[in-house]
Write the structure tokens for this entry.
Amino acid sequence: RLGAPVGGILPALPPNVVPNYLPSAPFISRFVGTGVGDLWFGGKIRVTPPNNAFGAALIPLLKIPTTRSLNTGLERGRSTGAIDYGLILALDGRLNKYINLSTNIGYIRKGDPRAEDMNLGPLGGGTTIQGFGRSERALDLPNEWRSGIGVDFPLSQYLQFSAEVNATRYVASRTPSLLRNDPVDLIVGARIYPAR
């Protein structure tokens, strides 16, 4: 068997070569595909009364993969092929009658795809290429610290503006990657209330 050194996603990498992958879709290699993605389950447990101007809540999360198949699922970006779980703390406060400020921080423990699902077939001479060598993991995905802050306020009786900045920081051990990004997203939007 040939395997990737230090847990690379590309099989049989030469020494000193570092692969590149996206932690949320590490095996993506096709532009098209259909199918259901991962299933996320969670619940918001509010620890302050609903009419309080300050709110605090805990949000447990669980992600269950819908596929572990390399060809029809993982290469199409539908899943990482592993179970993830985590907990997020959400805080919000009404600054005045109209403006609401929200923030959250949480940790997501990423599961690692199984090497037995990454069998890429025969190499020749009876040798099989399989990810991560003799290990049980095909890839060591980094865990995530997630954080965000947002604001929303009405512009009129029928229109509400909202803006949010979300950040993900990848932490803990991981398979080396050529491009180590910690993404930050800005989301701006509006809610329209046709009748009030």
Notes: The two ends are 67 Å apart (CA to CA).
